[in-house]
Design the sequence.
């Protein structure tokens, strides 16, 4: 995945979006932040679109890649649809793409979270645990 794929912006039903914990690159989930986003949305503040990937296992279904807090705030507001940037990428790139998109988030991912993303991506590429450790240790020197 040398180039970041261009998304297609479209209106998506929230009920068609799945949140898969494996593709959430952070250790914790901040419910206070969801409530803050919800209040801002209620007062009319605009947010960027969430990012989803086409779910290749189901028709008209998506996997949430970026925007978990915004997604949860919209659900709490009983919204049924949202504008989303839709990526057409292979599932093996979901976690790496989620990590890449979350680099802009606040707070930024910790080094431990970045290592987790890299570790999972290497595992998805078929590397053994020994090869993963060698790669991570080589890259940190």
Sequence:
């Amino acid at each position: 995945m040398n180039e970041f794929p261009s998304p297609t912006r479209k209106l998506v039903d929230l009920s068609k979006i799945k949140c898969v914990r494996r593709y959430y690159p952070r250790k914790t989930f901040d419910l206070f932040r969801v409530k803050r986003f919800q209040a801002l949305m209620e007062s009319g503040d605009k947010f960027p679109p969430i990012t989803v990937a086409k779910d290749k296992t189901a028709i008209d279904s998506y996997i949430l890649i970026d925007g978990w807090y915004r997604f949860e705030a919209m659900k709490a507001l009983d919204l049924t649809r949202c504008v989303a940037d839709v990526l057409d990428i292979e599932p093996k790139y979901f976690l790496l793409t989620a990590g890449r998109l979350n680099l802009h988030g606040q707070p930024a991912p910790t080094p431990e979270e970045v290592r987790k993303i890299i570790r999972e991506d290497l595992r998805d590429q078929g590397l053994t645990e020994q090869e993963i450790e060698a790669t991570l240790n080589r890259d940190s020197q």
Q: What stands out?
A: Residues 111-124 form the longest helix (14 residues).
